Structure formats: structure tokens, C-alpha cells
């Protein structure tokens, strides 16, 4: 059973990779662990600078009451960037599960400082898929995290 | 001349209000002050929990190089929430201009701590349009900032 939602998040990342996109996936779980929304990074597919996986999952979940977010868990294959960190704080999502933070480490400390429970799984499949993409397409990856690419 | 872009941002907010939406508008200016992208909050119009005005303006600007963001200015009619604050930090946008922060004050201190130049205009039109919406539709406003509504 995919208690932590990481399998579904990885499936999203994998779908993104097959589409030629940046392989980061995310799901939002309700208080019972059911999936409220799921998505993957759409930078390349939709030419979107803001549809990171976590934002896509929030969009898929649609408009929810504040009370739903406050019992939800956001799961992502990779450590969240500042924007996605901010989305977690906006909706006061109390806990997040991260597949890995080796390829990129976002604002996890800010989340912890603000009381969010952060679990890092150190998942090998998430790490290896992301590493593969970064090696194959460093320019697009750098664009996604607001970094210039000089190679 | 709309040097600070606030007039265009207010026009976006006003369009949002006329559409029955939450009246917050935003524009992104390039280093010369030309508009790269513009948008307004789409919670009600597109049933979107993430298309805040600033996110809509970033989407409208499309995929941009890191070097473009690093010379840009983000202008919004209202103080940015945590998510939009995070988007500013992700893309390392060096300065923002805020119409007002009376109806809502976001994570301005975090932006300043991270070196972003924050200018608050205390604009009367922005303040009065936003106040009107909050009085008319408090439930939708609270939803937009992740707050429960108990009235």
C-alpha cells in the first residue's frame, strides 16, 4: 500500500519524463490518505514557468476549504522550491513528504521553522530519475529553478 | 507615464472585479519598464487555487531566462501571499512594488530578509477596490488566503 503517496508521485514524475518533461511529480493526500490531486511539472509540456509538480497537484485538487488543506499531506518526488514552499505555507498544509533532496534542496528549513512536518525519504528511484534528467538536459533544469546555465 | 506599472496592475484588478473575481492584479516589468506579462487572480473565473495575480502574470510572461527575471520588477495591487513571495524568491526577482498592504500583509519581511527591494505605495484606489471586495465576499477572500471563514 502506498501509504505515503510516494509511489503515485513517482508515477507522475515518470509520466512527465516520458512526455519529454522535467520528471518531478506530486500528490496531495487528504486526512485519510486518499489522493485529492496529482500532477507533474509542466514547464516543457505547457511552456509554463509556474506549473511545478506541487502547483499542478494543487490545481488538480481544485478549490478546497481551508480545513481540508489543514489536514492534508503534500508529497513530492523532490525537495520543494521556494514557490512550492510558499504554496504549502499559504494553505497551512501541516506535513510534507519528499522523495529526495540530493539533486536539489529547497526551503525545507523555512518549512520546519514555520511548523511544517518534513519527512525526507531518500528514495532511490526518485533520486536516479531526477539525476538522469539533470545530466541529459541541464539547461531546462536550471531554468526550472531560476538558475542561469553557463555550459 | 506608468513608471511603476501600478496603473496596469490596477487595470488588471479592475478587470478581475468586473468578471466577478477577486480584484488583485499584477504585471512584470523588464529592466526598461516594459510589460513582460500581466494578469489577475483567477480563483473564481477558472476555479484555480494557484492562479493568484502574480502567478498569472508570470504565466503570461511565459518561460524566461534567469537573467531576465534578475532584472525584472514584479508589481502587484496587494501585498503578496507566501506562494507569490516564494515565486519571487525562486526567480530571484530583485524588486517588487506593492499597491497596498492594509487589506492584507504577506511575507514582506521574508522578501526583505532575502534582499528583495520592497516598495509599498499605499495606493488609495487599490486599497478601496480590495476593501470593497472583502466586504462583499468575505468567504471567497478568506479561501484565497487559506483562512477559514466562520461568519
Automatic annotation (TrEMBL), chains A, B:
Keyword Cytoplasm included in the entry's annotation: yes
Biological process per Gene Ontology, one example term: cytosine metabolic process
Domain CMP/dCMP-type deaminase, residue spans: 1-118
Listed InterPro entries: APOBEC/CMP_deaminase_Zn-bd, CMP_dCMP_dom, Cytidine_deaminase-like
Chief place where the protein resides: cytoplasm
Gene Ontology cellular component annotations, sorted alphabetically: cytoplasm; nucleus
GO molecular function, one term: diaminohydroxyphosphoribosylaminopyrimidine deaminase activity
Compartments (UniProt record): Cytoplasm; Nucleus
EC number: 3.5.4.1
Pfam families cross-referenced by the UniProt entry: dCMP_cyt_deam_1
PANTHER family: CYTOSINE DEAMINASE, CYTOSINE DEAMINASE FAMILY MEMBER
Reported function: Catalyzes the hydrolytic deamination of cytosine to uracil or 5-methylcytosine to thymine. Is involved in the pyrimidine salvage pathway, which allows the cell to utilize cytosine for pyrimidine nucleotide synthesis.
Name assigned to this protein: Cytosine deaminase
Amino acid at each position: 500500500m502506498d501509504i505515503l503517496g510516494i509511489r503515485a508521485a513517482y508515477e507522475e514524475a515518470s509520466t512527465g519524463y516520458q512526455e519529454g518533461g522535467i520528471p518531478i511529480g506530486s500528490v496531495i493526500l487528504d486526512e485519510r490518505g486518499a489522493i485529492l490531486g496529482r500532477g507533474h511539472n509542466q514547464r516543457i509540456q505547457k511552456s509554463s514557468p509556474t506549473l511545478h509538480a506541487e502547483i499542478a497537484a494543487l490545481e488538480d485538487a481544485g478549490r478546497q476549504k481551508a480545513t481540508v488543506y489543514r489536514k492534508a499531506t503534500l508529497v513530492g518526488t523532490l525537495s520543494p522550491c521556494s514557490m512550492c514552499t510558499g504554496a504549502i505555507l499559504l494553505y497551512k498544509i501541516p506535513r510534507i513528504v519528499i522523495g529526495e533532496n540530493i539533486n536539489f534542496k529547497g526551503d525545507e528549513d523555512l518549512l520546519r521553522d514555520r511548523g511544517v512536518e518534513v519527512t525526507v525519504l531518500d528514495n532511490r528511484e526518485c533520486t536516479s530519475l531526477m539525476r538522469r534528467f539533470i545530466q541529459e538536459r541541464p539547461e531546462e533544469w536550471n531554468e526550472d529553478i531560476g538558475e542561469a546555465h553557463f555550459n
